[in-house]
Automatic annotation (TrEMBL):
Identification of the protein by name: Enterochelin esterase
Source superkingdom: Bacteria
InterPro entries: AB_hydrolase_fold (IPR029058), Esterase-like (IPR000801), Mycobacterial_A85_antigen (IPR050583)
Pfam families per UniProt: Esterase
Amino acid sequence: MTDSRYLKRTIIKEEMDSKYLAETRNLRIYLPPGYNEILSYPVVYCQDGEEFFNFGRIATIANRLILDEGAEPFIIVGVEVDTTVRTAEYAPFGSRFEAYVKCFAEEIIPYVQQKYPVRTETTETLIAGDSLGGSVSLHIALQYPHLFTRVLSLSGAYYEASQQLIASETDLSWLNIFMIVGLQENEFTTDTGTYDFVQLNRDTKSLLEARGAEVHYEEKDGHHLWGFWQKELPNALLYFFEE
């Protein structure tokens, strides 16, 4: 049974205008227990913001980690996405990819930093995502290493275009990435084809390590579903935020 303290969550909804995407983008901001605006906090930026909150239950998990598991209080920013253009925004071959990456780094980050007391050091900042959200999180970090050096990838969709971008890098010794993939994801069908996510993640791990990245890599029984990722979120967050 879930402790009632974990369910007392403060979540603020924001709308931000993006010139790069020529539209407004919805954000969900989780504020930790005991939040005080005169303090400063580590921050997690999540792709698929609505799903991280609704299906990943990240706010409830964060409350538990902070109240009972020794995690330093942190803020979560969930960046929502229209699922009809998700692949176009998250995949390197997508028509909105470049605009989305710029929106995330050059518009969303400054917007949040101006309104909330989030820390700006890369050691206090995490970018997270599932599937294509995991791969686009890594791509944003690769393009903006002064903003992001820590990435949480849940069953990242590292298609050929993503692997080519990673392979073009020479020195990733600054990168710290937590990767996990489910062993039952070896034949998963997406809107662009059927893929072996296990092999994609294994190959990407090798590419990253060959370039000096610090990779925490796990394979466990699990499917390409939030039921798997939700269970793995606590340990993944503690990997970065345990005091």
